[in-house]
Amino acid sequence: MKFKNQLISVIFIFSLQSFADVKNVAHRGGALLAPENSISSFKNAIVLKADFLELDILISSDDSLMIMHDETVDRTTNGNGLLSELTYSQLRKLDAGRKFKKKFANEKIPTFSEILEIANKNKIEVVAEIKSTDSTAVKKVVAMVQNYKMQDRVILSSFNIDQIKEVRRLDSTIRIQLFATVNKEIIDQLKEINAEWIGSNEFSQEIIDYAHSKNLLFNVWTVNKESEMISLIKLGVDAITTDDPATLKKLTSSKKNK
Predict the structure, then answer these.
(1) Cβ distance 58 to 37 under 8 Å?
(2) pTM score, two decimals?
(3) Per the residue annotation, which of 27, 28, 131, 175 is the catalytic one?
(4) Considering the chain, what percentage of its residues have pLDDT values greater than 90?
(5) pLDDT in the model for residue 18
């Protein structure tokens, strides 16, 4: 009976540690709570004590690193057209908040530089996805991270493994993450370049365990339901990317404090 009680205690402690240790990645700053990829969303994620600000990087026609998910500005702003065909000045004139809610009217499309400054000031980490397919994108993004001396606080991500490999060649101190429909072959490829993270919206206990056996951390996106968060944590994921960092924070904090 004593052994059984000890075993139960170990399992209970492990459960609490698992909930406490999972990283809270605020997807586009927390797209359910404020305009996605906006200063407001990132500042809100900081207030909520998320572990990472997640964002997307595209490049304007005059080479500014802008924070936006879609190739066009149509969905989230009052403008239209390809972001890559608009200048920094044109992009900054757009309203990127009103479509989400009137109180966010006149929200501006931020730059990568602005978000790194905010993250640096508030000591929060960043997951930056390189969305641009421009041949100079990786070099520009890496240089910006280096300029802010934030190599140890930024994870550079992409769905393009060649971009991930380029990051590794340019600066091996910056953590990298591939977004993919994950399988063992992809995990093995990432192991070969000493990647730190794999991100996916498809998973299984077997594939998560295999990733861990190759020293890869597993990030699942985009999860907004508490029940799904609980299931993922029990599977042993290392991070959850969510539009609702408040719910994940409440969940992990309540488990930690029990």
Answers:
(1) no
(2) 0.92
(3) 27
(4) 89
(5) 75
pLDDT at residue 10, rounded to an integer: 35
Q: What is the mean pLDDT of residues 168-181?
A: 98
Which residue in 110, 154, 104 sits closest to 129, CA to CA?
154
Can the peptide bond before residue 222 be classed as cis, meaning omega within 30 degrees of 0?
yes
Residue 27 known to be catalytic: yes
Is 212 among the catalytic positions?
Answer: no
Q: Answer whether 246's CB lies under 8 Å from 26's CB.
A: no
| 37-60 mean pLDDT | 98
**Residue 255: its pLDDT value, please?**
62
Average pLDDT, the chain: 93
Dist CA 77 CA 35 (whole Å)? 10
* Catalytic hit among 50, 55, 60, 69: 69
